[in-house]
Amino acid sequence: MLIGLSAEATVRKGLTFFFDARNLTGEKAIGDISAVVAATPASAIYPVERRAFYGGLRATF
Question: What is d(CA 15, CA 1) in angstroms, rounded to the nearest whole number?
Answer without folding.
Answer: 33
